[in-house]
Write a structure and sequence with these properties.
mainly alpha, two-stranded antiparallel sheet
Amino acid sequence: MLTTTLGFTILALSMEHMIVILLIVLLLFGGKKIPELMRGLGKGIREFKDAKDNVKKEIENSINDEPSTKKEN
């Protein structure tokens, strides 16, 4: 593990760590539940990206609309 100057710990995962984590997940949830979990995770990530893009568009639209409203006054 690495520690930054502020004292936060950064996890450095090697391939062995990833394999152990995957085996633990497999033991806890079983082979039939993992596809459902991954599907739900994918949907959640997709919804998060969509929400992020919508917020970004709203901010860009408000920035683009702001100068035109000041000129009209």
